[in-house]
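Blinded run. Sample ID left blank on purpose so nobody reads anything into the name before looking at the predicted structure. Input follows.
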Amino acid sequence: MEDVIIRRVEESDAEAMSRLIAETLRTTNSVDYTPDQLDEIIAHMTPEDIKKRAGWTHFYVAVSGGDIVGCGAIGPYWGREDESSLFTIFVRPDRQGRGVGRRIIEALERDEYFLRARRVEIPASITAVEFYRKLGYDYKDGVKAVDEERLYRLEKIRKP
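Blinded prediction complete.
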């Protein structure tokens, strides 16, 4: 596993995060989504959008050698206290398969939004669904099909 520090996002991280997300989508997710679909997602991942998301989630970045190499967020599921969602989990393509994504998920699963929830949902891309399944997330309500957003809905039920 590579030397990575996971920390809470800072406002100055937004530009680098926006570039990382666009690069990851265009590289890794291009096998499962059309350029138009990716452009639509990227249009909502501007530095301003990331700053807004950081205002209502707990957003983390993975840093290696001073560079942001990954990110992920957790927040309430539609404002609920007993349910949360994971969002915006991306690892730079040249760092995938090195444990960075696992480290981000582990940090999110130590966050108060995770610890207070009995259920945690993640809207998983076609590209990443098997990664999340390896980490204990399963198909919500047993539905093994993508929704209208071309995402799988996965969840982890926490035991009280």
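Unblinding after everyone has recorded impressions. The first strand starts at residue 5 and ends at 8.
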